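Workshop exercise sheet. Pairs work together: one partner reads the sequence aloud, the other fills in the structure field after running the prediction. Swap roles for the next sheet.
Pair: D.N. / O.F.
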Amino acid sequence: MTVSYEHDIVAWAKEQAYLLRSGQLSAIDIEHIAEEIEDVGKSEQRELASRMAVLLAHLLKWQYQSARQSSSWQRTLKEQRKAIARRLTNTPSLKASIHDQEWLADAWGDGVSIAINETGMDCFPEHCPWTIDNIVSDDWLPPATANN
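Structure field:
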């Protein structure tokens, strides 16, 4: 190995790919390659959680600020739902995440934080009141609350 993982990860990655492709398996940096492979999975999970948090925040805004509903919000809802669906199609093992109550609770907390930051409101439910099927459904919107 001529390039240090800590010094230049891009050059290290190119070198590791070369070593793997050329069959020089004894020269590869096994530990760091394993870490990078694990990080790919974590990155996919973070992307799904981020998309879900944005979707939940916009659903909250839709419900609690019905007077401000806009086509921009509808586009965001549509885009996030499509991105989530793409992630689940391209990485089927992530489907278990959206049905995991702890994972959804974390995404809910992040979504509520986004909604609070964007609205200045602090009246959102502590727990997600919607089903995952509703959340990801293309045509579902939460009903407006009475305190709009």
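Discussion prompt: Residues 19 and 26 are 9 Å apart (CA to CA). What would you look at next?
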